[in-house]
């Protein structure tokens, strides 16, 4: 089909002026228009106060959530300049708030280091706010200006006298940009806590005025990353007494690093550049890891823990059980994207590796007992790694040999399309039998488990792979495990945990969730893991049968039946899935048209990690304290 002729001239080229590009493509500047992007508006405002603090001009930062989700971020720094800018011929305040790539961060004299990279932060907040007001206290006078969607409503005006100096940014996120405006107190507190650790000596206040009672929290730390590592370790048992800590400059890069090992196997490694959390790491984290691996290998061979010709520790060997953080302050940080998830400066790697390597060698010489504990842990990890490799190969070999005949207990589906296939992991042979008979064989597979699987929180991988139930699950999933894990080989895009609605069922569900969280995390990240919700009650009056999935729903059904039918129904409380016949199980729990599934997701991986450690780990005391503290309020912890 021939294309119609159309003009394509200069008039077809649109130039977006001012902050129009931000409103046109907000995700380019804040990552998304979902919850992460919404909270990023706060981070950008907080960054300006932190820049003042790092430069030595601010000692307090305050973040408030006011009524109707209005946000106020204040600092007692120097205050944004309000005099006329020589190029724009308008107030410097208006220039900063309404112009991309405008700010003191481009001039090294104003800020030696800064969290801002492009100078677009606060102007982006201005563009994406339905309303904003900035208050600046300088030279004894209060200067203000209001904006609507990035456009000034009037010129900067003087509103009277004020004491001290500082800047306050008050804004309302634009509902035209953000589908849901709901600020998460927990997320904000976590971010502010990190910043307080990284900017020691600075008081960070938070208040939430949305509810009836004022909620307030204050962070103030003198120990820097040393204090942060104590927070990461929490209630876990430290493997050595003294926390490694160093703060030193090299080539105009300030490096701060700290770590401590615990008896847990999980790895906590946080990295920061100019106080910006870099969740994807970068060159500074690479330098930290390289120094750690090199020095531990050198020390182990020098002190005969390893023979000269023996295989050294790998990076993974020396990181198991590590709770550490590295922070760099650098003049011109090179991040990937405006959301600054990864640092790219090559000079950061060499500075961190040099400083941490030298300090760590000194630490080992000064603390021989701590050094021995760390090295012995690494040796244990190597031993476990080799044993786990042999066990993994056994499971993989078994999976290959039995690939044409998957685990005998697995009733597989006929479909070979993983996107439409689902695997039910069912508690018990009886329930497994009902599920096999009641399922849709075309796309539903059933894997019954006998009893409770191993608590993997208390076992290493070689012990885990010796468990027959777990081996059957690994082979059924098709993904392998640990270093061999490959999410692309998964055989089902819905993996559904289906257990009884009693204490034992909840325990089995928790054991399975722990297994998936620790060893099949990408399955959770892809949204493939679900928890089935079988009914608690069968309510029958006459020939009418209804199912209740909660006590509240049961009461509602009872009231309705007595009012409308005038009958007292027969109530059956299901103790287990095995009590249902195949038709009932299909109708209530397995039929996609009417079933209720809970999708498993992890919003805060670190907090989830700590909960698993507390409830499923070896230590009894933290679990006892948790139960005493939350026994009356906790609900659905396992789901």
Per-chain topology:
Blueprint (H helix, E strand, L loop, with lengths): L19 H5 L2 H4 L4 H20 L5 E7 L3 E6 L16 H7 L22 H7 L1 E10 L2 E8 L2 E2 L4 E5 L4 E8 L11 H14 L4 E6 L6 E5 L5 H9 L10 E7 L2 E9 L6 E6 L2 E2 L5 H20 L12 H5 L2 E8 L16 H21 L1 H34 L20 E6 L1 H10 L5 E6 L11 H4 L3 H10 L16 E5 L4 H17 L1 H5 L3 E4 L4 E5 L2 E5 L2 H14 L5 E4 L8 H9 L6 E3 L5 H12 L3 H11 L9
Parallel strand pairs: 1-8, 12-14, 15-16, 15-17, 17-18
Antiparallel strand pairs: 1-2, 2-7, 3-4, 3-7, 4-5, 4-6, 8-9, 10-11, 11-14, 12-13, 18-22, 19-20, 19-21
Helix pairs in contact: 3-5, 3-6, 8-10, 12-18
Descriptive report:
There is one protein chain. The protein is of the alpha+beta class and 639 residues long. The chain folds into 3 domains: 20-219, Heat Shock Protein 90; 225-383, Ribosomal Protein S5, domain 2; 402-534 and 599-630, 3-Layer(aba) Sandwich (Rossmann fold), CATH 3.40.50. 37% of the residues lie in helices and 20% in strands. It contains 20 helices and 22 strands. Strands 1, 2, 3, 4, 5, 6, 7, 8 and 9 form a 9-stranded mixed beta sheet that branches. Helix 12 (429-438) packs across helix 18.
Kindly list the characteristics that best describe this protein.
alpha+beta, single chain, 3 domains, Ribosomal Protein S5, domain 2, Rossmann fold, globular, Heat Shock Protein 90, five-stranded mixed beta sheet, 639 residues
